[in-house]
Amino acid sequence: MTETYRKPTLDKDLDKFATMEEATGLINRGFVTPGLALVFIFLCAVIAAVFVTGQPGSVTIIAAATIGAYMALNIGANDVANNVGPAVGSQAMTLGVALAIAAVFESAGALIAGGDVVSTISKGIIDPVAVSDPAIFISVMMAALVSAAMWIHLATWFGAPVSTTHSIVGGVMGAGIAAAGVDAVNWPTMGSIAASWVISPFLGGLIAAAFLAFIKTFIIYQEDKIAAARRWVPVLIAIMSGAFAAYLSLKGVKALIQISFGMALLIGLGVAVLSWLVSRPLILRQSRGLENRNQSLRKLFGLPLIFSAALLSFAHGANDVANAVGPLAAIVHTAEFGDVAAKVVIPLWVMAVGAAGISLGLLLFGPKLIRMVGNQITKLNPMRAYCVALSAAITVIIASGLGLPVSSTHIAVGAVFGVGFFREWYTERSTRRADYVARHRINPAEPGAVKGRIEEQRRRKLVRRSHFLQIIAAWVITVPAAAVLAGFLFVIMRATLS
After folding, report:
1. Residue 398 has pLDDT above 60, yes or no
2. How far apart are CA 418 and CA 423, in angstroms?
3. Which of 154, 181, 150, 156 has its CA nearest to residue 168?
4. In this predicted structure, what is the pLDDT of residue 106?
5. Do 293 and 229 touch, CB atoms closer than 8 A?
6. Residue 10 exposed, middle or buried by CB count within 10 Å (0-12, 13-18, 19+)
7. Mean pLDDT of the chain
8. Over pLDDT 70: what percentage of the chain?
9. How large is the average pLDDT for residues 170-199?
10. Residue ranges covered by each domain of the chain
11. Cα–Cα distance, 355 to 162 (Å, whole number)
């Protein structure tokens, strides 16, 4: 028999090489996403150079395009998570499917219905007369864009979903104060924006909790869950379809056609009736053969959740692309024509930068915030995620009717909080739930079983307090943080250029 001899030293060296190769691969993987982001920013600068070389202010426009691309990446990384996070957290769809759906519909919303005209002074918070000098105006917009992008980047790194609208508003306010003083700010408008910090999440949470209470009462804790689902799920689908139809009529296609609030409600009502008629036989067929348990109910909410994620992404792309390209379009117009206009036309290449940046930012950096919104704040299932999506659409409709400025980020995250805190309240106080658990999941003959179960329910905290406090803190300091940073950047820009 031939004995095989091994050289321990050689084997150790080979193992070291293998370990080094593995470590190098891991390190390189960490540089891939920022590397791709830098390549995108560079390509945007090149595209801007192709379109504006030889025109007045071309250097300024190229610099602004670079910053706008960075801003769009950060919007995609942070803000889009609110649209698909609940659906992913409830396992209605995988992270990969969610990223693909969101990227496609965000881009479609931005390019199809993103609007070709935007206000140059975001939300009317700065008096245009105070920054009428083109050089001052460009510096204000540039500082606002950089500060908002940096703040959103920092918030994403910390895992806090923040409002990109509030970030850019804070940036414009801070740079405007540095340029023209405190009197240049429209403080009543700023007051209404500050009020939305409370209104948006509270209203979103309240509506989401109300729908979850309805689902628990009329479906989950019924003796025949499947029969209850056949009766009420088509109604919920109709409400959701109508709400999204009205939402898209008011917000998603406003750049293509102007629809009054009353007409949007009529469109929503018509779509709701049609959806109810279509969904009844579909739910009846889908529910045949399902067991009488909660796991079966989740299957009935899966497809509507996917549609809601797609529609929310479309509406978000149509609305929030202006946060990335609005200041950029204003800079392009001012640099080319030498005047400060109240409204400007967005060039197609500028809109493309915003749409592509939001989608790429989502694909490269979005999973972190998607997981935060989807399953780290509170545990979601398809029914709870459905309540979050429905709340987002209805809250925007109510706010539009009342003329209130609200944040889609605050609404969605507030709805997640509302679902979680309602579950805590319901778990602790609902005698109906306790009776149901006692009859179905606990052996009543076991001494102390029911009492022990109820005591355990009362001790449970279903919303992670650390995430809750972290996100609330990020919301509160978004506007002042972006404002201070923008003011500082404006001073530096003016000192450098002078």
Report:
1. yes
2. 8
3. 150
4. 83
5. no
6. exposed
7. 83
8. 82
9. 87
10. 40-429+461-497
11. 19
